[in-house]
Write a structure and sequence with these properties.
By secondary structure, this protein is an alpha+beta fold. The protein has eleven helices and ten strands.
Length: 348
């Protein structure tokens, strides 16, 4: 097991890496495919840092902490990269025993490695050290994979088994699931767009087809914790003609996962996040039909993703698929469609 002392990390002299976003303008050419997200097999990585110091940073001030990310290539070569680690997030930052992380790479050092061209990445971590929270993390990872089946305008994710080594030696190594999430700007460039950080855009001002996908997808997973106008768990991307596309993320409050800390907004009129509520703007049955067709077409692939994920307890898999069964019964029954999507829709 790799062990690096705190003094050794300090000697690395890792300076805070810049994370400023380029000015919005004409979209950059799409980058070459990132190898990190081109495979689905779980990575095995080791992160070494002063995790006691990192875990204390729960406020708005988020300082960089030097660390080392290491892994072994399929050819058996050992790779070690200097990184900066930041805490991130809001709600999970407050409640989780291990905080969500952002991992920043030195682009020159990481060139020609698995993390080439990445710059910085969110690392979604297992919130607490028990089997239930391992299930929740894997299920959220699968939700990203589900939406990848629906549209390329989605964030890609890569599952990992992460071994955390405390550089101070005050605690032993711990290995948990986590997953890396594609950077906002790289997702945008992959789709020949750029990120638009503008609040106040309403659903009807976005691309109708993509907005429909998002709204039906959020209904599928039972997620009401999102807002286009507030840029809450939504990234807006804009193409060269000015068309806006919403891209969702952050699914841990979804009804299909149903973690104990997730509660719906009291203004929505639902008692638990397990209750579905369509939060898209109003559409006719004819306008909804093409979106339902997309989800019907990927149903078998969605179910195969869940059945193929060995890390999740089988009872949780069957619960999730039963929850999805109810969605499919709804979208294929005109009377249920009227009740769920038309009678309860939002004005444009």
């Amino acid at each position: 097991m790799l062990r690096i002392t705190l003094a050794a990390l300090t000697a690395l002299g890792v300076a805070p890496l810049g994370s400023a976003r380029p000015q919005a303008g004409a979209p950059s050419p799409a980058p070459p495919p990132a190898a990190l997200f081109d495979a689905a097999d779980p990575l095995a990585i080791t992160l070494t840092a002063d995790f006691n110091a990192i875990a204390k940073e729960r406020g708005e001030q988020k300082h960089p902490h030097p660390g080392v990310l290491s892994y072994v290539t399929p050819r058996g070569d050992s790779v070690s990269l200097k990184v900066n680690l930041h805490t991130r997030g809001h709600y999970r930052l407050r409640i989780c025993s291990f905080p969500p992380l952002k991992v920043e790479f030195d682009k020159n050092e990481s060139a020609h490695t698995l993390f080439a061209h990445q710059g910085n990445l969110k690392l979604v971590v297992q919130c607490r050290d028990n089997r239930a929270f391992s299930n929740y993390l894997l299920e959220e990872y699968l939700i990203y994979r589900v939406y990848n089946l629906v549209t390329p305008m989605s964030f890609r994710a890569r599952l990992a088994r992460v071994t955390y080594v405390d550089a101070t030696g005050r605690r032993g190594p711990e290995t948990r699931y986590g997953f890396f999430l594609e950077n906002d700007d790289r997702m945008a460039r992959r789709n020949h767009t750029h990120v638009l950080d503008t609040k106040g855009v309403i659903q009807s001002q976005t691309d109708p087809s993509q907005m429909g996908r998002v709204a039906v997808f959020e209904y599928l997973i039972g997620n009401t914790d999102w807002s286009v106008a507030g840029l809450h768990n939504i990234v807006l991307i804009e193409d060269s003609t000015g068309v806006l596309f919403p891209v969702p993320y952050d699914y841990d409050w979804s009804g299909v996962i149903y973690p104990p800390y997730a509660v719906p907004d009291s203004r929505l009129g639902i008692r638990t996040v397990r209750e579905r509520l369509y939060r898209g703007y109003c559409r006719t049955a004819a306008e909804l039909a093409p979106h339902f067709a997309v989800f019907n077409a990927v149903k078998d692939s969605i179910y195969a993703l869940y059945r193929g994920e060995e890390g999740i307890e089988r009872g949780r898999v069957e619960d999730a698929l039963g929850y999805y069964d109810e969605f499919y019964r709804t979208i294929n029954d005109p009377r249920r469609v009227k009740r769920a999507f038309i009678d309860s829709c939002l004005p444009g």
